[in-house]
Sequence to fold (282 residues):
Amino acid sequence: MFGRIFSRTRYLFPLLLALFAVFLTGWILVAAPLNHSAWLEAVSLQSQQQAPTSDPNTFHLLNGKLASLGWIVGRDCQRGLRAYLQTADTNPDAALVGTGWLDPTTGTFINGQNNNCMPGSLSMDNVVQLVHSKGGMAYFTVTMMTDGTPGSWTSQQQSDYIRRGTTDQSYIDNIVREVQRAHYDGVIMDLEAGLATYPNIQQLFATYNQRVWAALKPLHKWYGIALIHKLNDHDDYYSLNAFENWSLLARAADFIVVMAVDQCTWMEEIGSLMAGSTTRMA
Fold:
């Protein structure tokens, strides 16, 4: 009996297997487009989620081939422009000095009286445009005339300005407005005459810089501080640099500019060219 059953099953089983294979193949052909589409969509979404995005806050201070920042001064603008153009293809970035002279009594800016960048004007807007046309970053230099010449400001006045800048928002707004108006890429703070004996001057200067930095961040504008050279915290130039606490200022800017050439010039020695080199704060 079982022999007859197995004999018949021997022919029936391959037939059933063939029918099942046909059914399974048809089901796969019908269902595959939908599943394949869904699978592709899932892969596409995953790829989109994992694809790297461009971060506007990526640290990118300079566009040149070297970490070197040129300086163009308004009163010597024509020579500065000629020198700039000689190396603009390699180092197109520049800091502009001439329209950011501070009046410490009001916190407003004064154009340099001898700026000669544009005929019949004290503006340096054309220099900003030139730097951008060369693919460079243009930095607005905020500074104050404190060189002891007639009509210059005193260390006391600069220190008073710094103190007021820690609480008076208009002082910060004046900087931001000029940056936006002229389309600067960032600011370099270059105050050099804080009074060493002024009460709490180091903390005041750090707080002031932190406020400027905070105001520029939402605009994606970089902020740097030009620091007077020092060999240690109480070196021979302490009377000049005592108001700058480097440890505090390291938390108040995107980068620093160490004015090392000032020291070489003061000592009448030729040293390595470091003025304008930028260093990211750790």
